[in-house]
Amino acid sequence: MLIVSYDFTNNKTRSKFAKFLKKYGRRMQYSVFSVHNSPRVLRNILTEIEAKYKKLFTKTDSIVIFPVCEGCRGKTIRYGSAHHDIENVVYFG
């Protein structure tokens, strides 16, 4: 799993980056996404950042990618609505 955190001063750039990340994961907080990790996914994200977003950075803009190993993922402590993210949901219709 990857945790991707970002901060752009430009609203349009921030919105575009969030829309891009939605293809790979789900939003955990306003500017934080959880992404299922694979070498291909990470390569796609890094390529997109290098090609489109890096050149748009201002002095205060940032993207930080945190890899989370499976062992650490199991030790994550969650509260509130984040606690429900790990539960399996079954729907009967």
Automatic annotation (TrEMBL):
Pfam families: CRISPR_Cas2
Any coiled-coil regions, as ranges: none
Cofactor(s) needed: Mg(2+)
Keyword Transcription: no
Class of the enzyme per the UniProt entry, highest EC level: hydrolase
Record keyword Transcription present: no
Gene3D superfamilies, sorted: 3.30.70.240
Residue intervals passing through the bilayer: none
Keywords recorded for this protein, A-Z: Antiviral defense, Endonuclease, Hydrolase, Magnesium, Metal-binding, Nuclease
CDD domains: Cas2_I_II_III
Residues reported to bind Mg(2+): D7
EC number per UniProt: 3.1.-.-
Leader sequence residues: none
GO biological process assignments: defense response to virus; maintenance of CRISPR repeat elements
GO molecular function terms listed in the Swiss-Prot or TrEMBL record: hydrolase activity; metal ion binding; RNA endonuclease activity
Subunit structure: Homodimer, forms a heterotetramer with a Cas1 homodimer.
Protein family membership: Belongs to the CRISPR-associated endoribonuclease Cas2 protein family.
Reported function: CRISPR (clustered regularly interspaced short palindromic repeat), is an adaptive immune system that provides protection against mobile genetic elements (viruses, transposable elements and conjugative plasmids). CRISPR clusters contain sequences complementary to antecedent mobile elements and target invading nucleic acids. CRISPR clusters are transcribed and processed into CRISPR RNA (crRNA). Functions as a ssRNA-specific endoribonuclease. Involved in the integration of spacer DNA into the CRISPR cassette.
HAMAP family (alphabetical): Cas2
Record's protein name: CRISPR-associated endoribonuclease Cas2
UniProt source species: Candidatus Gottesmanbacteria bacterium CG1_02_37_22
